[in-house]
Amino acid sequence: MARDRLAALRAQRQQQGGDVEMGNLQTPSYPSPTNNVTNGGAGNGTDAMSAFYSEITSIQDAITSYNSNIARISDLHSRTLNSTDEGANHQNAALLEELVGQTSGLGTNIKQRIQALEAQPAQPGQDMRIRKNRTDFARSKFVEALQNYQQVERDYRARYKQRVERQFKIVKPDATPEEVNAVVNDTQGGGDQIFAQALSASTRYGESRAAYREVQDRHADIQRIEHTLEELAQLFSDVRMSVLVNQQDETIKAIETTAIVVDDDTRKGVEQMDLAVKSARSARRKRWICFILILIILAIVGIVVGVEVSNNVNKNKNN
Predict the structure, then answer these.
(1) Measured between alpha carbons, how far is residue 48 from residues 21, 38, 117, 221, 263 in Å?
(2) Average pLDDT in the 116-137 region?
(3) What is the mean pLDDT of the chain?
(4) DSSP label at 40?
(5) Rounded to whole angstroms, how far apart are CA atoms 114 and 274?
(6) Is residue 63 part of a domain?
(7) Record's Pfam families (predicted)?
(8) Are 13 and 216 in contact (CB under 8 A)?
(9) Which ranges constitute the DSSP H helices of the chain?
(10) Is residue 293 in some structural domain?
(11) For the domain that residue 111 is a member of, what is the CATH number?
(12) What is the pLDDT of residue 202?
């Protein structure tokens, strides 16, 4: 009997959900990551920087829109939790689902456009430093927005679970912690079974039915939040990975530059060594030449002196 009641309530909720108006939300079109990006290595440098400034400004505007969406999502969560109007809550849920989808697409677009800017080649100098600083700043703001979005979703996930716990205790005030945990987290589908048992034992069918609808709605909200958190975690990981790749590229470039400088210094050092060796050999050769010349001069002087002495001796004998 209780399971029949649960099935009837599910069918009623689905019928009500199908009649909800989607409101005034429209699916936006986002700029392509390649449409507004000019190759930094081609064309006039002024034109390239002008295109860069235009794109980075557009990205910053997109991040502002992303933060505005987060604020609207938080507001819709709050309205859902504070409202007791079932029809209004269904409409809020539909608007929330649409807005979450738009925000997801916008976040992916921002990530891709930032990565496209980081991949642009640029000539070393002031322009390259400006590009890097502005791109790093935009990425840091996007990371802050992602972290804020994650925190908003975590906070409301906790509040939705608290709401489920309160509604379940309306049906079963003496519920054990294990039963509460099973219903709140809907572990292995155990929440429905426990609710069916609680409904069959409850004497307040009207309140129990309303509590069941509330729990089902909050479970749908929690599942949507879980999905959003998974997407945000992946998006955050992609952005951080992009930072690591860029840092590794910069490290590799620095190593390559250092290797070129070392190679050039080594080549110059070898050339200087060759010149030093040649100079040393030339100096040694000159010293040997000087030594030999000195020996020859000494020999000549010795011969001259010997001849003079011999002549003097002979003259003395003759006298």
Answers:
(1) 46, 6, 12, 46, 34
(2) 83
(3) 77
(4) T
(5) 52
(6) yes
(7) SNARE, Syntaxin
(8) yes
(9) 2-18, 45-82, 86-119, 126-171, 177-185, 190-201, 205-318
(10) no
(11) 1.20.58.70
(12) 61
CA 167 to each of CA 170, 217, 218, 283: distance values in angstroms, whole numbers, following the listed order: 5, 11, 10, 102
Q: Among 106-110, 264-268, 295-299, where is mean pLDDT lowest?
A: 264-268
**CA-to-CA distance for 20 and 77, rounded, in angstroms?**
17
Can you state the angle between helices 177-185 and 190-201, rounded to 10 degrees?
120
Asked whether the beta carbons of 183 and 192 are under 8 A apart, the reply is no
**The pLDDT of residue 204:** 61
- Torsion sign, CA atoms 167, 171, 175, 179: negative
Q: What is the pTM of this model?
A: 0.63
Q: What is the CA radius of gyration of the chain?
A: 43
Contact assessment for residue 27 and residue 109, using Cβ atoms and an 8 Å cutoff: no
CA distance 14 to 266: 78
Nearest to 100 by CA among 225, 239, 238: 225
End-to-end CA distance of the chain: 167
List all residues 6 or more positions away from 108 whose beta carbon is below 8 Å from its beta carbon.
Answer: 235
Which residue type, as a one-letter code, is found at position 81? L
Q: Dihedral (C-alpha) 49, 51, 57, 62: value to the nearest 10 degrees? A: -140
Q: What is the domain count for the chain? A: 1
3 state SS of 26: coil
pLDDT of residue 3: 44
Residue 210 falls within a domain, yes or no? yes
Torsion of CA 86, 91, 95, 97, to 10 degrees: 60
pLDDT digits (tens, 9 = 90+) for 44-91: 667 888 899 999 999 999 999 999 999 999 999 999 888 777 788 788
How far apart CA 136 and CA 114 sit, in angstroms, is 9
Q: What's the one-letter identity of residue 137?
A: F
Residue 90 in any domain: the answer is yes
Number of other CB atoms surrounding residue 103 within 10 Å: 23
pLDDT of residue 59: 95
Helix (H, G, I), strand (E, B) or coil at 307: helix
